[in-house]
Structure formats: C-alpha cells, structure tokens
Amino acid sequence: MCDYPISQVYPWDKRSLAQIDALLQKEGITRDGNLDYICAMRDGSDEIIATGSCLGCTLRCFAVSSEHQGEGLLNEIISHLIQVQYARGNMHLFLYTKIQSAKFFGDLGFYEIARVDGTLVFMENRKSGFPTYLKNLEKTKKDGVSAALVMNANLFTLGHQYLVETAAAKCDTLHLFILSEDASLVPFGVRKRLVQEGVAHIPNVVLHDPGPYIISSATFPSYFLKDEAAVIDGHARLDLAVFTRIAQALNVTQRYVGQEPTSQVTGLYNKIMAQELPKAGIACRIIPRKEVSGKAISASTVRVALQSGDWELLKTLVPPTTLDYFTSPEAAPILERIRRAGDVVHY
Question: Are residues 247 and 156 in the same domain?
C-alpha cells in the first residue's frame, strides 16, 4: 500500500489536467474526450505521478510517472477506480489495454474478451461474462439461413427500416442488434422501442441487446491509437473479433450493412468489414441506401430536421411509428436535448 493520496480531478482544474496530459503523452496516450471520472495520485510536492479514468462501466487512460514505476501505483489507481465504479452500481467492468499490458490486468482479475493483434485487448472483470452471453444467444438460434444486422438507430429512419426489410427477405432468420450504450442524443430505451415498433411487421426478425460487447464509435477507446485511421481500423477489427464469436453462437453466415455515401468513418469501417468477414466464413452484404428526392436517408438528416422543427421533411424520412413518438408529449425532453445540441451531423 502506497502513501500517496488519490483524488478526483474536475474539468475546471486546468493545472491538474495539463499535468495529466503530459503524463499520458509520455506513455503515448492522448486523454479521451469522453471521460466521466478522472483521478490523480500526487506526491509530497503536489505533482501528479499517476492517473486513471472511467467512462461508463469502463476503465481507461492509465499512466504512472517513470520515476515511480515498479512501486505498485497502478494497482492503487485500478483499485480506486473499481471502488468508484462499485459505488456507482457498476459491478461488471471493462477495460481496453495495449497488448503488452494484458497480463498485468489479467493478474488483477480481468479476463480477455477479444484482441486486435498489435493494437489492443478488450477485457472484463467476469471470467464467465462473455461465455455466458454467448450461451444465452445460442438459445435464440434457429434452423435455416441466419443473418445479422447491427445498428445504432439514432434515430430509426425509413432507411433503417428498408435495410431490415431487405436483409430479412434474404434469410430465414435475421438477428438484429441495437447498440445499447447511451452515448447518443436519444437514450437506448427509446431507440430500442422505435426499432421494435418499426420492424414489428417483419416476422423473422429476432431483436437482441448486444450489451457491452459490441462497442459504438462514440465510446471506442481512441486514446492510445496514433491517428484517426488507426482508430477506425482498430474499432472495426475489435468489433469483428467480437462479432465473429457471436456469429458462431448463432450460426450466422451473413452480415448486412448499409452503404455509406457520406460518412468517411463508416465508409472505411464497411470496407474493412467487407475484407475481413469472409475470412471467418461470413459474407458481408452491403445494401444501397434508400433515397428520398435523390438523396440517401440518414439519421443525421433526421436529427437536423428535428432540431429545426421541419416536420414536413421528417414525414418523408421516418416511419409513422418514429413520427408518432416525436409528436407526442413523451418526446419533449429528448426534442429539447436535440434542439440544444450543437452539431447533430455525424461524419
């Protein structure tokens, strides 16, 4: 047990954040912009010598000063963050780490879920976590040709509906996964409900929560990857490593994705998917986007319409179930959040 105090660092403490940034940079890490808790360990001169952070139920952005490595400070930081998470009610924890650090975290009670060779390892604090999730998925396995679709659906549009209808028509069972992280303007509970209502007429769709195992781009750990291309590549390959295990549990042989004419990020992601999925025996089917007035329907356009109150445009972009929700009093808090948001377009 060390004698150095650990305390929370708040967003307005610019001096401490500057020290943390300098400490992280020495480890080749850039501070994640989405953190919801940051802690620092200080020496007798009030200089920060170790740090770690949280985002949701994940632990991230660890670093220890080179002068103090080997003193067990990282163990103290991890123990502190775990206690913070437990106090929040988060008992199932996750972390992403460099390949060379995976054994260290394994010794602290974390278990590997998946890895991207040369880049990162995705870990959790439950030995049976991912295996149990896969076993539960197996209970929904059906005979015939099975396919899968993964979507954020922020918000559920006629384009999403068309993609589901097209994929479902080409298989016996379509396993539909909705990203469950609340990193979007619209909470998961609402997104899921709008998807359920929007696909209720398609009998061979099986809806799943991917839980914490399929990661959105908003919460993917980019802090120890060198540039945007590396981030996109790392995210795609980690997603595919996890998805391949899910596909095996469900006998899925096809994954459907929507063509991406506007977002460079999603376009690169789809390209990597199309290259890598066949290596695991899974066909990648890219479906052309549904268009209105010669333009592909996008969730970004829907959010812009909601932000500006353009209900006539909205009627051409979303199914009646989505429109009904956003014209109801229940949607008022979310509409206000969208109106107050800055840029609601995702690139």
Answer: yes
Give me the domain span that covers residue 18: 1-91
Is the pLDDT at 130 greater than 80? The verdict is yes
Contact 61, 21 (CB under 8 A): no
Q: Is the pLDDT of residue 347 over 50?
A: no
Ramachandran category for residue 281: left, alpha or beta (phi over 0 → left; psi -120 to 50 → alpha) = left
Supply the pLDDT for residue 218.
Answer: 53
The verdict on residue 33 lying in a domain is yes
pTM metric for this prediction = 0.89
Q: Last residue of some domain: 33, 67, 91?
A: 91
Residue 328, domain member (yes or no): no
Supply the pLDDT for residue 225.
60
Rounded-to-integer distance, Cα 98 and Cα 51, Å: 16
What percent of the chain shows pLDDT beyond 70? 93
Cα pseudo-dihedral 126, 49, 235, 95, rounded to 10? 10
Rg (CA), the chain: 22
Dihedral over Cα of 30, 71, 11, 58: its sign: positive
Handedness of CA 61, 67, 69, 74 (dihedral sign): negative
In whole angstroms, give the CA distance from residue 156 to residue 319: 8
What are the distances in angstroms from CA 148 to CA 145, 208, 216, 270? Answer: 10, 10, 17, 14
Q: Is residue 345 part of a domain?
A: no
Identify the CATH number of the domain in which residue 215 sits.
Answer: 3.40.50.620
Burial tier of 236 (Cβ tally within 10 Å: 0-12, 13-18, 19+): buried
The answer on 150 and 230 residing in a single domain is yes
In a domain, 194, yes or no: yes
